[in-house]
Protein backbone atom coordinates (compact mmCIF):
# COMPACT_ATOMS: atom_id res chain seq x y z
CA UNK A 1 0.00 0.00 0.00
CA UNK A 2 1.37 3.42 -0.98
CA UNK A 3 2.29 5.57 2.02
CA UNK A 4 0.45 8.89 2.18
CA UNK A 5 2.39 11.69 3.88
CA UNK A 6 0.68 13.69 6.62
CA UNK A 7 0.93 16.85 4.48
CA UNK A 8 -1.05 15.16 1.70
CA UNK A 9 -3.43 13.37 4.05
CA UNK A 10 -4.35 16.66 5.73
CA UNK A 11 -4.26 18.84 2.64
CA UNK A 12 -7.27 21.22 2.76
CA UNK A 13 -10.05 20.07 0.43
CA UNK A 14 -12.59 22.88 0.89
CA UNK A 15 -12.45 26.66 1.18
CA UNK A 16 -13.37 26.56 4.87
CA UNK A 17 -10.46 24.17 5.53
CA UNK A 18 -7.96 26.78 4.35
CA UNK A 19 -6.84 28.39 7.61
CA UNK A 20 -5.64 31.94 8.12
CA UNK A 21 -6.71 33.20 4.67
CA UNK A 22 -10.07 34.82 5.42
CA UNK A 23 -9.78 37.62 2.85
CA UNK A 24 -9.08 35.23 -0.02
CA UNK A 25 -11.88 32.87 1.05
CA UNK A 26 -14.33 35.78 1.25
CA UNK A 27 -13.42 36.94 -2.28
CA UNK A 28 -13.69 33.47 -3.79
CA UNK A 29 -17.02 32.76 -2.14
CA UNK A 30 -18.43 35.95 -3.66
CA UNK A 31 -17.14 35.01 -7.12
CA UNK A 32 -18.38 31.41 -6.99
CA UNK A 33 -21.78 32.14 -5.47
CA UNK A 34 -22.43 34.83 -8.08
CA UNK A 35 -21.54 32.29 -10.82
CA UNK A 36 -19.37 35.00 -12.41
CA UNK A 37 -16.38 32.73 -12.96
CA UNK A 38 -13.33 34.70 -14.07
CA UNK A 39 -11.10 32.84 -16.58
CA UNK A 40 -7.76 33.59 -14.85
CA UNK A 41 -6.41 33.62 -11.29
CA UNK A 42 -2.97 34.16 -9.82
CA UNK A 43 -2.31 32.66 -6.41
CA UNK A 44 0.84 33.89 -4.71
CA UNK A 45 2.45 33.79 -1.29
CA UNK A 46 5.15 32.06 0.77
CA UNK A 47 5.85 28.34 0.59
CA UNK A 48 3.58 26.00 2.51
CA UNK A 49 0.59 28.33 2.78
CA UNK A 50 -1.80 26.29 0.60
CA UNK A 51 -1.44 27.71 -2.91
CA UNK A 52 -1.69 24.41 -4.82
CA UNK A 53 -4.43 23.19 -2.50
CA UNK A 54 -6.41 26.36 -3.19
CA UNK A 55 -6.02 25.91 -6.95
CA UNK A 56 -7.49 22.40 -6.69
CA UNK A 57 -10.30 23.63 -4.44
CA UNK A 58 -11.25 26.29 -7.00
CA UNK A 59 -11.23 23.61 -9.69
CA UNK A 60 -13.61 21.45 -7.63
CA UNK A 61 -15.90 24.38 -6.79
CA UNK A 62 -16.59 25.10 -10.46
CA UNK A 63 -16.69 21.45 -11.57
CA UNK A 64 -18.52 19.57 -8.81
CA UNK A 65 -21.23 17.49 -10.48
CA UNK A 66 -23.71 18.66 -7.85
CA UNK A 67 -23.42 22.29 -9.03
CA UNK A 68 -21.06 25.26 -9.04
CA UNK A 69 -20.66 25.64 -5.31
CA UNK A 70 -18.45 26.94 -2.49
CA UNK A 71 -18.90 23.53 -0.83
CA UNK A 72 -17.97 20.78 -3.34
CA UNK A 73 -19.31 17.33 -2.44
CA UNK A 74 -15.98 15.42 -2.59
CA UNK A 75 -17.99 12.35 -3.62
CA UNK A 76 -18.62 12.79 -7.33
CA UNK A 77 -16.24 11.65 -10.07
CA UNK A 78 -14.92 15.16 -10.71
CA UNK A 79 -14.21 15.94 -7.06
CA UNK A 80 -12.57 12.59 -6.35
CA UNK A 81 -10.39 12.67 -9.47
CA UNK A 82 -9.30 16.26 -8.79
CA UNK A 83 -8.37 15.35 -5.20
CA UNK A 84 -6.25 12.50 -6.55
CA UNK A 85 -4.76 14.74 -9.28
CA UNK A 86 -6.10 12.30 -11.90
CA UNK A 87 -8.71 14.46 -13.60
CA UNK A 88 -7.99 14.64 -17.35
CA UNK A 89 -9.62 18.07 -17.63
CA UNK A 90 -7.58 19.52 -14.75
CA UNK A 91 -4.03 19.80 -15.99
CA UNK A 92 -1.22 20.71 -13.59
CA UNK A 93 2.02 22.00 -15.10
CA UNK A 94 5.34 22.59 -13.37
CA UNK A 95 6.51 25.95 -14.67
CA UNK A 96 10.01 25.34 -13.32
CA UNK A 97 10.64 22.38 -15.64
CA UNK A 98 8.43 23.41 -18.58
CA UNK A 99 9.61 26.93 -19.27
CA UNK A 100 9.72 26.85 -23.08
CA UNK A 101 7.11 28.42 -25.33
CA UNK A 102 6.30 25.01 -26.85
CA UNK A 103 4.79 23.95 -23.51
CA UNK A 104 2.45 26.96 -23.47
CA UNK A 105 1.52 26.35 -27.09
CA UNK A 106 0.48 22.81 -26.13
CA UNK A 107 -1.79 24.25 -23.44
CA UNK A 108 -3.42 26.64 -25.88
CA UNK A 109 -3.98 23.85 -28.38
CA UNK A 110 -5.69 21.66 -25.76
CA UNK A 111 -7.79 24.61 -24.58
CA UNK A 112 -9.49 24.84 -27.98
CA UNK A 113 -11.37 21.58 -27.41
CA UNK A 114 -14.33 21.00 -25.14
CA UNK A 115 -13.56 19.31 -21.82
CA UNK A 116 -14.38 15.62 -21.46
CA UNK A 117 -16.22 15.63 -18.13
CA UNK A 118 -15.76 18.94 -16.32
CA UNK A 119 -17.65 22.18 -16.86
CA UNK A 120 -14.31 23.95 -17.08
CA UNK A 121 -11.01 22.70 -18.40
CA UNK A 122 -8.46 23.99 -15.87
CA UNK A 123 -4.76 24.67 -16.34
CA UNK A 124 -2.81 25.05 -13.11
CA UNK A 125 0.67 26.41 -13.77
CA UNK A 126 2.85 26.06 -10.66
CA UNK A 127 6.07 28.08 -10.22
CA UNK A 128 4.87 30.22 -13.13
CA UNK A 129 7.56 32.85 -12.46
CA UNK A 130 10.01 30.40 -14.07
CA UNK A 131 8.35 30.66 -17.50
CA UNK A 132 10.33 32.34 -20.27
CA UNK A 133 9.41 35.80 -21.54
CA UNK A 134 8.25 34.33 -24.84
CA UNK A 135 6.00 31.92 -22.91
CA UNK A 136 4.47 34.82 -21.00
CA UNK A 137 3.88 36.71 -24.23
CA UNK A 138 2.08 33.75 -25.76
CA UNK A 139 0.06 33.18 -22.60
CA UNK A 140 -0.97 36.84 -22.55
CA UNK A 141 -2.78 36.48 -25.87
CA UNK A 142 -4.82 33.64 -24.43
CA UNK A 143 -5.68 35.54 -21.25
CA UNK A 144 -6.84 38.49 -23.36
CA UNK A 145 -9.17 36.26 -25.40
CA UNK A 146 -9.74 33.07 -23.39
CA UNK A 147 -11.64 30.10 -24.74
CA UNK A 148 -15.11 29.49 -23.29
CA UNK A 149 -15.20 27.36 -20.12
CA UNK A 150 -11.45 27.40 -19.65
CA UNK A 151 -9.70 28.44 -16.43
CA UNK A 152 -6.06 29.41 -15.94
CA UNK A 153 -4.68 29.32 -12.40
CA UNK A 154 -1.13 30.60 -12.00
CA UNK A 155 0.81 29.84 -8.83
CA UNK A 156 3.97 31.57 -7.65
CA UNK A 157 6.08 32.44 -4.64
CA UNK A 158 7.57 35.42 -6.51
CA UNK A 159 4.81 37.55 -8.01
CA UNK A 160 7.27 40.39 -8.61
CA UNK A 161 8.77 38.28 -11.44
CA UNK A 162 5.44 37.96 -13.24
CA UNK A 163 4.85 40.56 -16.02
CA UNK A 164 2.32 43.18 -14.93
CA UNK A 165 0.38 42.57 -18.13
CA UNK A 166 -0.27 39.00 -16.93
CA UNK A 167 -1.07 39.95 -13.33
CA UNK A 168 -3.53 42.66 -14.42
CA UNK A 169 -5.62 40.07 -16.29
CA UNK A 170 -5.95 37.73 -13.32
CA UNK A 171 -7.93 37.70 -10.10
CA UNK A 172 -5.20 38.32 -7.52
CA UNK A 173 -5.30 35.89 -4.58
CA UNK A 174 -2.56 36.58 -2.03
CA UNK A 175 -1.95 33.97 0.66
CA UNK A 176 -0.13 35.16 3.77
CA UNK A 177 2.17 33.43 6.21
CA UNK A 178 0.19 31.80 8.98
CA UNK A 179 0.55 33.04 12.53
CA UNK A 180 1.73 30.81 15.35
CA UNK A 181 -1.76 30.43 16.83
CA UNK A 182 -3.29 29.18 13.56
CA UNK A 183 -0.48 26.70 12.97
CA UNK A 184 -0.51 25.42 16.54
CA UNK A 185 -4.30 24.94 16.59
CA UNK A 186 -4.25 23.08 13.27
CA UNK A 187 -1.36 20.72 14.08
CA UNK A 188 -2.88 20.05 17.50
CA UNK A 189 -6.07 18.85 15.77
CA UNK A 190 -4.02 16.66 13.42
CA UNK A 191 -2.09 15.09 16.31
CA UNK A 192 -5.29 14.30 18.19
CA UNK A 193 -6.79 12.65 15.09
CA UNK A 194 -3.58 10.68 14.52
CA UNK A 195 -3.45 9.60 18.20
CA UNK A 196 0.00 11.14 18.65
CA UNK A 197 1.02 12.19 22.17
CA UNK A 198 2.38 15.75 22.45
CA UNK A 199 3.09 18.53 24.94
CA UNK A 200 2.26 22.20 24.68
CA UNK A 201 5.84 23.54 24.68
CA UNK A 202 6.86 21.25 21.82
CA UNK A 203 3.95 22.53 19.70
CA UNK A 204 5.06 26.08 20.47
CA UNK A 205 8.54 25.33 19.13
CA UNK A 206 7.22 23.61 16.00
CA UNK A 207 4.77 26.46 15.31
CA UNK A 208 7.37 29.19 15.79
CA UNK A 209 10.14 27.55 13.77
CA UNK A 210 7.85 26.64 10.86
CA UNK A 211 8.21 30.27 9.76
CA UNK A 212 4.56 30.68 8.91
CA UNK A 213 4.39 27.52 6.79
CA UNK A 214 1.80 24.94 7.79
CA UNK A 215 3.36 22.37 5.47
CA UNK A 216 6.73 22.84 7.19
CA UNK A 217 5.11 22.30 10.60
CA UNK A 218 3.35 19.12 9.42
CA UNK A 219 6.58 17.82 7.84
CA UNK A 220 8.39 18.40 11.15
CA UNK A 221 5.71 16.40 12.97
CA UNK A 222 6.11 13.56 10.48
CA UNK A 223 9.89 13.45 10.91
CA UNK A 224 9.62 13.42 14.70
CA UNK A 225 6.95 10.70 14.81
CA UNK A 226 8.17 8.47 11.97
CA UNK A 227 9.38 5.85 14.48
CA UNK A 228 7.36 6.53 17.63
CA UNK A 229 4.03 8.36 18.03
CA UNK A 230 5.22 10.86 20.61
CA UNK A 231 6.29 14.50 20.46
CA UNK A 232 8.17 15.85 23.47
CA UNK A 233 10.67 18.64 24.08
CA UNK A 234 13.63 16.27 23.76
CA UNK A 235 12.89 14.91 20.29
CA UNK A 236 11.53 18.29 19.13
CA UNK A 237 14.77 20.05 20.09
CA UNK A 238 16.83 17.39 18.33
CA UNK A 239 14.76 17.66 15.15
CA UNK A 240 14.70 21.48 15.06
CA UNK A 241 18.32 21.90 16.17
CA UNK A 242 17.54 24.04 19.19
CA UNK A 243 19.39 24.32 22.50
CA UNK A 244 18.26 23.22 25.98
CA UNK A 245 16.67 25.97 28.07
CA UNK A 246 19.62 26.15 30.46
CA UNK A 247 22.07 26.98 27.67
CA UNK A 248 19.89 29.90 26.56
CA UNK A 249 19.42 31.11 30.14
CA UNK A 250 23.19 31.16 30.69
CA UNK A 251 23.64 33.28 27.55
CA UNK A 252 21.02 35.77 28.75
CA UNK A 253 22.65 35.87 32.21
CA UNK A 254 26.07 36.64 30.68
CA UNK A 255 24.53 39.42 28.55
CA UNK A 256 22.71 40.93 31.53
CA UNK A 257 25.80 40.83 33.78
CA UNK A 258 28.05 42.09 30.97
CA UNK A 259 30.26 39.04 31.51
CA UNK A 260 31.90 38.98 28.07
CA UNK A 261 34.43 36.30 29.01
CA UNK A 262 31.74 33.86 30.11
CA UNK A 263 29.54 34.85 27.16
CA UNK A 264 32.29 34.05 24.64
CA UNK A 265 32.90 30.71 26.38
CA UNK A 266 29.20 29.83 26.04
CA UNK A 267 29.14 30.94 22.41
CA UNK A 268 32.15 28.77 21.56
CA UNK A 269 30.43 25.71 23.04
CA UNK A 270 27.32 26.45 21.00
CA UNK A 271 29.08 27.03 17.69
CA UNK A 272 30.89 23.68 18.08
CA UNK A 273 27.47 22.01 17.88
CA UNK A 274 26.98 23.39 14.36
CA UNK A 275 23.46 24.65 15.01
CA UNK A 276 21.72 27.39 13.05
CA UNK A 277 22.70 30.72 14.62
CA UNK A 278 19.45 32.44 13.65
CA UNK A 279 17.51 29.66 15.37
CA UNK A 280 19.47 30.29 18.58
CA UNK A 281 18.72 34.02 18.44
CA UNK A 282 15.03 33.24 18.05
CA UNK A 283 15.31 30.94 21.09
CA UNK A 284 16.74 33.84 23.08
CA UNK A 285 13.75 35.93 21.98
CA UNK A 286 11.32 33.26 23.14
CA UNK A 287 13.02 32.92 26.52
CA UNK A 288 13.06 36.71 27.05
CA UNK A 289 9.33 36.68 26.31
CA UNK A 290 8.78 33.98 28.96
CA UNK A 291 10.84 35.94 31.51
CA UNK A 292 8.80 39.07 30.83
CA UNK A 293 5.55 37.16 31.28
CA UNK A 294 6.77 35.70 34.57
CA UNK A 295 7.60 39.19 35.80
CA UNK A 296 3.99 40.04 34.97
CA UNK A 297 2.77 37.08 37.09
CA UNK A 298 2.00 34.92 34.05
CA UNK A 299 3.56 31.45 34.01
CA UNK A 300 3.83 30.47 30.34
CA UNK A 301 6.26 27.60 30.72
CA UNK A 302 6.22 25.83 34.10
CA UNK A 303 9.30 23.78 33.22
CA UNK A 304 11.47 26.91 33.43
CA UNK A 305 10.41 27.66 37.02
CA UNK A 306 12.55 24.79 38.31
CA UNK A 307 15.73 26.61 37.25
CA UNK A 308 17.23 29.01 39.80
CA UNK A 309 18.80 30.99 36.97
CA UNK A 310 15.37 31.64 35.43
CA UNK A 311 14.03 32.88 38.77
CA UNK A 312 17.14 35.01 39.19
CA UNK A 313 16.79 36.64 35.74
CA UNK A 314 13.09 37.23 36.31
CA UNK A 315 14.01 39.12 39.46
CA UNK A 316 17.03 41.19 38.35
CA UNK A 317 16.17 42.05 34.73
CA UNK A 318 13.91 45.06 34.27
CA UNK A 319 10.98 44.94 31.87
CA UNK A 320 12.60 47.76 29.93
CA UNK A 321 15.85 45.84 29.44
CA UNK A 322 14.02 42.66 28.40
CA UNK A 323 11.94 44.60 25.89
CA UNK A 324 14.96 46.42 24.44
CA UNK A 325 16.86 43.16 23.93
CA UNK A 326 13.81 41.51 22.40
CA UNK A 327 13.25 44.36 19.93
CA UNK A 328 16.90 44.33 18.85
CA UNK A 329 16.66 40.60 18.19
CA UNK A 330 13.51 41.10 16.12
CA UNK A 331 15.36 43.54 13.82
CA UNK A 332 18.27 41.11 13.40
CA UNK A 333 16.25 37.94 12.80
CA UNK A 334 13.87 39.62 10.35
CA UNK A 335 16.63 41.21 8.25
CA UNK A 336 18.95 38.19 8.11
CA UNK A 337 18.22 34.68 6.86
CA UNK A 338 21.77 33.46 7.48
CA UNK A 339 23.99 34.68 10.33
CA UNK A 340 27.62 33.54 10.21
CA UNK A 341 29.67 32.58 13.27
CA UNK A 342 31.54 35.88 13.67
CA UNK A 343 28.39 37.98 13.24
CA UNK A 344 26.60 35.77 15.76
CA UNK A 345 29.37 36.29 18.32
CA UNK A 346 29.51 40.05 17.72
CA UNK A 347 25.73 40.41 18.00
CA UNK A 348 25.68 38.84 21.47
CA UNK A 349 28.81 40.67 22.66
CA UNK A 350 27.28 43.96 21.52
CA UNK A 351 24.21 43.24 23.66
CA UNK A 352 26.43 42.89 26.75
CA UNK A 353 28.38 46.14 26.27
Descriptive notes:
One of its GO terms (cellular component) is DNA polymerase III complex. Residues 37-178 form the AAA+ ATPase domain. GO terms for molecular function: ATP binding; DNA-directed DNA polymerase activity. Belongs to the DnaX/STICHEL family. This is DNA polymerase III subunit gamma/tau. The chain has 353 residues and is of the alpha/beta class. It folds into three domains: 6-174, Rossmann fold, CATH 3.40.50; 180-240, Orthogonal Bundle (Helicase, Ruva Protein, domain 3), CATH 1.10.8.60; 245-352, Zinc Finger, Delta Prime, domain 3 (Up-down Bundle), CATH 1.20.272.10. It contains 17 helices and seven strands. The chain has helices at residues 6-9, 22-34, 51-63, 77-83, 101-111, 133-144, 164-167, 180-193, 200-209, 214-224, 233-240, 245-256, 260-271, 277-295, 308-316, 319-335, 341-352, and strands at 40-44, 90-94, 121-126, 150-156, 171-174, 197-198, 230-231. The strands form two sheets. It has a five-stranded parallel sheet, covered by helices on one side. Strands 6-7 form a two-stranded parallel sheet. Strand 2 (90-94), helix 5 (101-111) and strand 3 form a beta-alpha-beta unit. Helix 12 crosses helix 14. The longest helix has 19 residues, at 277-295. The model has no long low-confidence stretch (mean pLDDT 91).
Amino acid sequence: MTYITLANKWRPKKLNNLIGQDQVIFSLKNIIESKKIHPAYIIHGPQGTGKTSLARIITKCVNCEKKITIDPCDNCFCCISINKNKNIDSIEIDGASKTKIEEIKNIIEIAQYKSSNNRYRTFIIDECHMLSQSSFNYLLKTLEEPYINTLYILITTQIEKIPKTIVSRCINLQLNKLNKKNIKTHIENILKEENIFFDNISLDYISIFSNGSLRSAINTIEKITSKEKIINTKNTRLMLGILPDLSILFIIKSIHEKDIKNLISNIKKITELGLNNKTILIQIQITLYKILLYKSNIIYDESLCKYKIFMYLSKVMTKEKITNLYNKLIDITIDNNVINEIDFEMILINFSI
